[in-house]
Write a structure and sequence with these properties.
With 409 residues, the chain is α/β, with parallel strands linked by helices. Helices cover 45% and strands 17% of the residues. The protein has helices at residues 3-18, 22-28, 77-93, 114-128, 147-161, 185-197, 217-228, 251-261, 275-279, 318-327, 334-337, 340-354, 360-385, 389-406, and strands spanning 33-42, 48-59, 65-72, 100-106, 137-141, 209-213, 232-237, 242-244, 271-273, 285-288, 307-309, 330-332. β1 (33-42) and β2 (48-59) form a beta hairpin. The chain is globular and about 55 Å long.
Length: 409
Amino acid sequence: MNAYDNALRQLEKAAKLMDLDPEVVARLSAPEKIVMASLPVRMDDGHLEVFQGYRVQYNSARGPYKGGIRFHPQVDLDEVKALAFWMSIKTAVVDIPMGGGKGGVVVDPKSLSKTELERLSRAWVRAFRQVIGPEKDVPAPDVYTTPQIMAWMADEFSTLEGKPSIGVVTGKPLDYGGSKGRGAATATGGFYVFMKLIEDTDIKPNKTKVAIQGFGNAGSIMAELLDNEKFIIVALADSKAHIYNDKGLDLEKVFAHKESTGSLAGFSGAKEISKEEFLALDVDVLVPAALENQITKDNAEDVKAKFVVELANGPLTPEADEILYKKGVVVIPDVLANAGGVTVSYFEWLQNISNNYWTEEEVDKELREKMIPAWEAIYQMSKDKKVDFRTASFMVALHRIAKAIQAKV
């Protein structure tokens, strides 16, 4: 089952439970707009390569479309549609006045030089210029897109518009309209929610084992945050290797190894295991921070973690969700767990359009003030309706989107 089918099943499940207006369901069962473009790029050796690009604008009932652009060889339209739908839910979960969108390019960015990557980034803006803008649709980084790529995109858009328009994208470098705290926001938001969740439990960090799948921005920062609280990080994974040490990994050495070699493979302070073994480790907390569909009906029974914190988008399939719920595993869903990223993206956009920049402390305070009430609303909905946290998240978000749609008709 593809990611978009999963997304529509989640919509259907929540809509039935809350008796959602069928007209609202109909509006949310398809994107408002799908834009596709061929992106011709002159490569360093002189030959022309044409890449497939997408932008899906899913729902704008609550404000301008908001959502990242990913550069990845496995990008396809269904994936981008699913991610755009989840962005519509996510912005409503944290109650920011924006809608949901997503973009992508079918490319392996690791195979491109820096100049080729810049040409591709600028080509994407030229192709989608008419549908993006600070008041229309505000992209951001996602898988394999970076602050540098956002800077190129903002510069290209500003050049085409003939005026500075840095609010067209978020996740930019600090020196070019970025927000303090944006780099750590996805992990920090998930960390706040997880710490709030365990507040009233008897969990002792120094006795709690954690495995984090994905060692990019979100996964590596989550590892640091949990390590600082004395949680025991026993397993980490990136695209090249899954590493495990039951006594706990020395994060300082892990970071040094990753910095010098570019991957976790070959790290001497741990043994390498398979992905299947990694997901089935006897840990207390599992943090999927990589790609979609990692835990499915085929391996969900093997998961031994008591908590799953979804820093990635869509790492569990609906079947896996049901299996884990029946097993009593507590899942903090992606639409809440990783919503810190879009929340601080919204803060960055606000700072850009007002030309008034915040301190890191202000950003952190505002982030906490969005994440904790979002968690409390979801927790209450889960309790009232006796549903899992994902379904409760969708119910909270759909209620807010429905109110915005109904206010206009």
